[in-house]
Design a protein that fits this description.
mainly alpha; 65% helix
Length: 224
């Protein structure tokens, strides 16, 4: 990873911080807690990835579970507890929409990583990853829904479901492209970038935040 231009990890880092910032902005009453937890979580995975912890891909259970399982369990906890659902119902929807703008630079990062042979082409918008649509349309949705107020609940729900499907598509492709024992894609060029700093932040932080924001908005919109 040493040969990568500085702008690639820099854009990845800034995209991560952008997601964390808008998640905290969406929940001002809990912003300090969100920022603190995110800082410690990113620090932990920075240390682990810099020391090559995730590059041992053939051990069982996969070490990568440490990066993805805790955030998923936290999301589940938020949705199944009364306190968690109360927090969701207080979230600022506008901030949750703007959060998705980060998916544009993230897609650029994936494309650059492909050019430097760190991820397979299938993970980029030249392959089977159309998640850039979510980031581009986020600004349009924000403007039409919250500035001009010309679109309502139905369109917002449809947008969230479409973007959620796009997210699931790239996440599943990315996981199955990592050189684990169950790898299915990218044999000519596996997805090795996410095993290293700062790109491990993508599955450990960015994806869970994006997933949570969609699920939270869908819950709010369906309850309106």
């Amino acid at each position: 990873m040493e040969h990568l231009p500085l702008y690639i990890p820099l854009v990845m880092g800034l995209s991560t911080f952008y997601c964390v910032y808008f998640l905290a902005k969406a929940a001002p009453a809990y912003s300090v807690s969100i920022l603190l937890v995110a800082f410690l979580w990113l620090l932990l995975h920075s240390f682990l990835s810099v020391n090559g912890y995730y590059t041992h891909t053939q051990v069982m259970p996969p070490r990568f579970l440490l990066a993805v399982l805790p955030p998923l369990l936290l999301i589940l906890l938020v949705f199944v507890t009364k306190k968690g659902r109360s927090v969701i119902d207080q979230l600022d929807m506008k901030s949750l929409v703007l959060l998705h703008v980060a998916r544009v630079p993230v897609e650029m990062v994936l494309f650059w990583l492909f050019l430097y042979k760190q991820v397979p082409e299938i993970m980029t918008f030249e392959g089977q990853n159309f998640d850039v649509f979510s980031g581009i349309t986020a600004l349009v949705v924000y403007y039409l829904a919250y500035v001009k107020q010309r679109i309502g609940t139905g369109i917002l729900l449809m947008w969230n479901f479409i973007c959620l499907i796009l997210l699931i598509n790239i996440v599943s492709t990315a996981v199955l492209s990592v050189p684990f024992s169950f790898q299915q894609f990218g044999f000519e060029q596996p997805n090795v970038a996410v095993l290293h700093f700062p790109f491990v932040w993508l599955p450990a932080c960015v994806v869970p935040i994006v997933l949570f924001s969609h699920l939270a908005m869908i819950r709010r919109l369906m309850n309106e």
